[in-house]
Amino acid sequence: MVSRFMDWFRQARRNLASAYANLREGIYEEVCFESHQAGEKAVKALLNFLHRERRGHSITYILSELGLEIPQDVKECALMLDKHYIPTRYPDVFDEGTPMDYYTLKDAENCIKCAERILGWVEEIVSRA
User: Fold this and answer.
1) Please, are residues 57 and 73 in contact by the beta-carbon 8 Å criterion?
2) Enclosing domain of residue 62
């Protein structure tokens, strides 16, 4: 398997930059989605670094396949970000309104914090290898 670690990780960083751009614009549902994407791609980068591959979008389940000890706060961040994969994008997730009606600054800040934690953890693992 050809290593695509840097490609996955660069895109994770790009998604995080997009989350910050959306934060500045007050587009909180997109902040949460882009934060999820950053976390997912960072964990897929690590999986690739370990010469494995997996389809799917659940950060939680991808973490479970790494074969590594996962810090509790990283697990909690994965669970939290996974909850924002679908409802940030589709109006029919809610009985009324659209995602923009349900997401707040606090949601956005929490998601970015978790994305940063996951990216930082992946960088720590790779730097020790």
Assistant:
1) no
2) 5-128
CATH code of residue 76: 1.20.120.330
Two tokens at 45?
């980068």
Angle formed at CA 123 by CA 80 and CA 47, multiple of 5 degrees: 70
Q: Which residues contact 87 (CB under 8 A, 6 or more apart)?
A: 93, 94, 99, 102
Total number of domains constituting the chain: 1
Residue 56, classified by CB atoms within 10 Å of its CB into exposed (0-12), middle (13-18) or buried (19+), is exposed
Q: Model-level pTM?
A: 0.96
Is residue 38 within 8 Å of 15, Cβ to Cβ?
yes
Q: Are 112 and 19 a contacting pair, CB within 8 Å?
A: yes
Tokens representing residue 125 in the block:
């693992």
In tens, the pLDDT along 59-111 reads 999 999 999 999 999 999 999 999 999 999 999 999 999 999 999 999 999 99
Query: Which tokens sit at 62?
Result: 């991808």
Residue 117 CB-half CA count within 13 A: 20
User: Does residue 46 contact residue 27 with C-beta atoms inside 8 Å?
Assistant: no
